[in-house]
Amino acid sequence: MRKVRIDYSGLVASKLLERSRFVHDGLNGNLTLTSPPVTVVVLNTQNTALQSAISAARNRDTHALALLREAKAVVVESLRQNGDYVNSIASGNEPVLTGSGFELSKDATSGFPGIVEKIEAKFTNIPGTIDLFWKRAKLAHYYNVFVSTDGGTTWALLNTVIGRRILVDRLISNKRYMFKVVPIGVQGTGPESDIASQVAY
Question: Full-prediction pTM beyond 0.70?
Fold first, then answer.
């Protein structure tokens, strides 16, 4: 489930101010997010104070820099509180999350593996074999390898492997085989790979 980002402590002051203004505008008049812990009025006041602190700190005065750090800390904490609030109210409702002005976390399907790329079936010098390999899919824990002997009309599970390579053996020489690989991760099954095809030696 997607959520809004709540930790902005790593942002430089100007970027923090920009994000806080987005949040102010997103919360202002939002009919779903009516009671943030830090109101839009208070957040606007804090943004103004941060803007002033940024301007004052341009001369690198020690006192001004200390005030800038304090102003940043206040805004960071306000964003954290309001971010927690948005996450609890929106409960994964993406339009509400997007409209809040916060950055969103990565895609909710980030736990699903990505597609297997660069699948290749290579001719070998060993009778009855084909060397099949592919590039690792993001977030894949293992791979289901499928084979077709009728031009892709039907597919059968050939093997389940942890690695990214398999020497397919016990094949009929001079017969064409087609292969595809499906990655499996913690959240479930990823998309099928492209098809690789080769004739067994």
Answer: no
Q: Is the dihedral of CA 134, 139, 142, 144 positive or negative?
A: negative
Measured distance CA(90)–CA(181) in Å, rounded:
37
pLDDT in tens, 52-70: 999 999 988 899 999 999 9
Per-residue pLDDT tens for 85-125? 999 999 878 889 989 999 987 654 456 888 999 999 999 98
Query: Measuring CA to CA, how many Å separate 74 from each of 42, 53, 91, 143?
Result: 11, 12, 26, 48
**No. of helices (H) and no. of strands (E), the chain:** 4, 7
Half-sphere exposure of 78 (CA within 13 A, CB side): 25
Q: Kindly list the distances between the CA atom of residue 180 and the CA atoms of 25, 117, 130, 185, in Å, as whole numbers in the listed order.
A: 48, 10, 13, 17
Structure tokens at 109: 């399907």
